[in-house]
Q: What sequence folds into this?
């Protein structure tokens, strides 16, 4: 029997209510300010948030956009990628990554992920690039599609950055543009051995896209996104592109889009940005507590891996188990929320059947997609709630192990007596 959502000891997968109630006065003040000034599109609230978020990401510019998808699409469009060009990314991400590529007129192709971090594997990217050829003009050509390869979109998945030094080195060698998909990595950090310093998500590629969908570490009260860059020319192009191609009102240098961010959403994000470092620290504490509680678990539960060069902000806390569906059903019965991010790799989605990928082409992503489970993760999660989550995961895992052990005993493999 399923447990009601009103169950007193229910543990939600995500809590979007508590932080907004805690900041209710600040957030409603933003709305009152908009009402009293009539500033609903553009203006000081948008500019103030852009400046603050650029500073947070250690970039020169931040351009507020209507969504994370549009942010990535605009970044691709202004970065030199031409219609029909190949943009290389990973299959283990939300479809918005490849929607942005396709809708920019480009063509997505995939490389497999690292089995421990679930991010783009530099070795697989290198193998892909080494298999490409050069045409007479020197352009890098995909052996798979025969199209020019011009950009790479590494995805900082689950709040942890890709090994960017390795990706950037390959991009430099092959003349590719790197655009970060940082939609799940607000405040994540990477220790660059090349730069000998910690660097923020959104500051390492030519540009980066962020999403402020409500469930993100920094979430709006609706749709919102941003592009970060330290390239002033690229920043100006994106500002025009998001506003119907206007250099100034009614003077259109290019045909653009309506990709502006509402002033109210920018004001809400600015109010919440002040608290983001604290919330990220709390997420890291919650992740450390999960690691401690799972310490006694055997190999039946694979925990998140954080390399020494990474400071993840744990947008999600993702484990792997053999019987993912069984575990999720068990957690649901005992009132614990969970999720899957993501169940079908993009190269096997019906939407991309035209790309002609087949099962087995990207085995690491395919295996991970069948085993991953996202456990409750949010700053207000308590140690008591985490202890109960881990207890139920381990209870199910031990039953699963015993069941399969008993099955093996009941049906032993007989030796070949004719040998």
A:
């Amino acid at each position: 029997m399923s447990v009601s959502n009103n169950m007193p000891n229910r543990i939600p997968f995500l809590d979007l209510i508590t932080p907004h109630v805690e900041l209710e006065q600040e957030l409603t003040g933003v709305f009152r300010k908009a009402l009293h000034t009539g500033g609903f599109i553009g203006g000081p609230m948008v500019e103030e948030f852009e400046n603050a978020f650029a500073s947070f990401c250690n970039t020169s510019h931040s351009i507020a956009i209507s969504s994370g998808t549009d942010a990535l699409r605009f970044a691709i469009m202004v970065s030199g990628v031409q219609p029909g060009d190949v943009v290389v990314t990973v299959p283990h991400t939300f479809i918005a990554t490849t929607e942005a590529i396709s809708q920019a007129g480009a063509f997505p192709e995939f490389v497999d992920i690292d089995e421990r971090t679930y991010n783009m594997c530099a070795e697989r990217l290198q193998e892909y690039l080494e298999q490409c050829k050069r045409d007479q003009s020197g352009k890098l050509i995909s052996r798979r599609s025969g199209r020019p390869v011009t950009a790479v979109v590494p995805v900082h998945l689950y709040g942890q950055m890709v090994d960017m030094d390795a990706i950037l080195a390959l991009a430099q060698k092959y003349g590719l543009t790197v655009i970060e998909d940082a939609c799940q990595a607000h405040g994540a950090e990477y220790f660059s051995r090349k730069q000998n310093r910690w660097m923020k998500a959104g500051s390492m590629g030519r540009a980066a896209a962020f999403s402020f969908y409500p469930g993100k570490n920094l979430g709006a009260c609706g749709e919102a996104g941003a592009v970060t860059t330290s390239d002033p020319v690229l920043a100006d192009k994106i500002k025009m592109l998001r506003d119907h191609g206007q250099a100034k009102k009614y003077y259109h240098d290019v045909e653009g889009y309506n990709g502006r961010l509402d002033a109210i959403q920018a004001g809400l994000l600015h109010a919440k940005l002040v608290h983001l470092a604290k919330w990220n620290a709390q997420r890291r504490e919650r992740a450390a507590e999960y690691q401690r509680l799972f310490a006694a678990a055997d190999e039946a539960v694979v925990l998140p891996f954080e390399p020494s060069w990474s400071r993840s902000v744990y947008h999600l806390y993702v484990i792997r188990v053999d019987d993912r569906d069984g575990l999720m059903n068990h957690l649901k019965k005992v009132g614990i929320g969970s999720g899957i991010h993501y169940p079908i790799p993009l190269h096997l989605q019906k939407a991309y059947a035209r790309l002609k990928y087949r099962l087995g082409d990207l085995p690491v992503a395919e295996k991970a997609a069948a085993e991953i489970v996202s456990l409750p993760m949010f700053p207000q999660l308590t140690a008591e709630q985490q202890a109960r989550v881990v207890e139920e995961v381990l209870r199910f895992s031990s039953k699963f192990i015993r069941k399969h052990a008993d099955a093996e005993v009941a049906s032993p493999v007989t030796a070949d007596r004719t040998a």
